[in-house]
Protein 1
Amino acid sequence: MDIENLDAMGCAELIAAGQISPRELVQATIDRIEALNPSLNAVVHKLYDKALAAAEAPGLADTPLRGVPTLVKDLDGSTAGDPWYGGSVYLKKLDWHEPDDSHAIAQMRRAGLLIVGKTATPELGMQVNTVTDAHGTTRNPWNLEHSAGGSSGGSGAAVAARIVPVAHGGDGGGSIRIPAGYNGLFGLKPSRGRVSNAPLEADPWGGLVCRHVLTRSVRDSALLLDWLSKPGVGDPYAAPAAVRAYLDEVRAGVRGLKVGLMTHHPLGGALDPECVAAVRLMGQRLAEAGCVVEEASPPAFANLRPEWLGVVVTAWIAHELEDLIRRTGVEPGPGDLMPAAAGALAAGRKLPAPVYIATMEAIHAWSRTMKAWWADHDILLMPTSPYVAPRLDVLAADPANAAMGVSLTAPFNMTGQPAASIPGGWSALGLPIGVQAIADFGREDLIFRIAGALEEMAPWTDRKPGVCAG
């Protein structure tokens, strides 16, 4: 039984049919972590005993994903009583634990998922590459010399290597979509307010951060969003309710949808020709499926200012660290923070409040003009990243190259729109290429319809990376 090749819903179907037990699935996941993690460095906290106990608990609910193993990113949400280091030596030295599940993690458990471990992330989510002083380097299972992306890089590598069928992630500038693109996965950043940030956060990064999962199948992502999109008590806002279950949208068809293709960099940067070719190929497939496809993109892109993201991230990283200092009672010492986080803390402590407020107002004003394009279109298709997953040594030699990685994803954290990376093929070197689909605010249904159609026309899950279970 090749259970490692099943998606989460496929695993749940085996459990429901009595062909395998939750404990057997958890043990198989543990075995895969032990076999593959030395190469990948994707899992940084092993929660084996808890997962095995949960698998045998008499109260394991009869839910759609009952007994399916998963992994949780060591950032963007807490699991009750477990380590929470956020990729930081500072928190690792303190062996910091969070006492409660975040709202989204609690919903994952209610859906029936069993948490077997926690995955690697760059320090406080500040890179699109998962390399830290706390845990070392996370590697791409398609080629170990290449980046797994970030900041949900550990989750991306683990799902691609078939350690688990689904893993948790968070996205403040591309941190679900970039690792999905680099690892050949489907990764959706939902609309702002779709997934609650309760109870510890209300509006992280000024509304730029959204949480969801990385999956190999579109249907797994849709089913999980049906569960995760339940509002938390006291949320400051919520995205518009879905008309019907997202799972029902995956095979609902795309005929008549109007799709724009963006094949140039909105800020004038370079795009890898292979990434552009993948966008055009997906546009061609959607045209064959009945979409109206044209070369078109939002004119407001030209007015985007990259420095806006820097102000927001600096202010919020400083706030997050100040909050941790208050909660732990310990100030970071020399070497406890990597240069990016240490620099953000120092700069954020000096950042005037009017500058931050003016930046947020500029982002919102620009977002209004940006979103006007979707009044006449349903989907924008464009590359997830300007380049295919880069070599780790290239990123280490040129940090600016890594920063360029968010230039195509972060704009939609600013607008709050749903955006997903969809597998669009492979490069000449055999690395995955992600294509990004963006819908109007609150219209995740259209993304699931587009992604479901592309998955059906050109399935991507049969192709496996070099480091992989099975």
Protein 2
Amino acid sequence: MSSSALGDSLRRRPWAWSFIGAAVVWLLTLGLSNGAGAVQSLQTALFFAMFYAIVGLGQMFVITSGPGNIDLSVPSVMTLAGLVGMAVMAQNNAAILPGLGGALAIGLVIGAVNFGLIALLRIPPIVATLAMSFIVQSVAIAAGGAATLKPPALLNQIAVARFLGVPVLPFLMIAVAGLMVLVLRRTLFGRAVLAVGQSERAAWLAGLNAGRTRFYVYVLSGGLAALAGVLLAAFSGGASLDIGSQYQLASIAVVVVGGTSVLGGRAYPQGVWGASLFLYALVNLLNLAVVKFGLGSAGPGIRLILTGVMIVAIVAIARDAD
């Protein structure tokens, strides 16, 4: 393929940059580690990227629904849903479905309340969802305290299950991302999200209800954040108050790096997965570099700076190529 044809292909597929970035970072990681644990590192990346991808898909629908729309309540929803889910299950395999149902209900309700604050009280989404995040986190603190609530043995086994050595749950989530592509491109709901994000007035003239569409996307975001909270608690061995702390900015970063427009109207679920792999691989690379080059106590600060710089760089490259 010629360089011109390759450039045209990448312009039509801005989400591809996230996979290119993930591959480059993974190769750099192998170089620093002298190729040790290549397969294991890839499998680990699939597991941890999965949680970025789940919350990122919900955030993607919110951002796609129009300029200014964002959900900053993701980490607190994950925390509260994880705690409630584990509390209801009480390490009892028979209570897995009720616990999962309760956790998802919490996410859906919080998503609905987020939209209510935005639509009824005319509060900007960034303010409404951030305020809701503080409220929900406070409820989680009051309800869960400092305890770590452990999952039932069966749920933990499901979360880490492998088939022929290959992790099962991440591939199910990859299938979900594929389903989201079909939802956006082939269903009335998906087309309504894209249309409202591109132009609310044009969508209204076409007979679409922008308010109802945005209600659905905020509810969807809350539900996916709750699902991520339960799965993360099951995978990590328990739910605690900081279980969702790193996912607020990560849920936004994977959307933007994955090619979705922050102005709305354009989304790529497959890019969310690529960006999730990129983000995990980047953090892993920087952790390895800190150890390799003996950066010591300066490591955390350097990691944060380099992570931000590299995310800005790949977003800029993808934007210029679009």
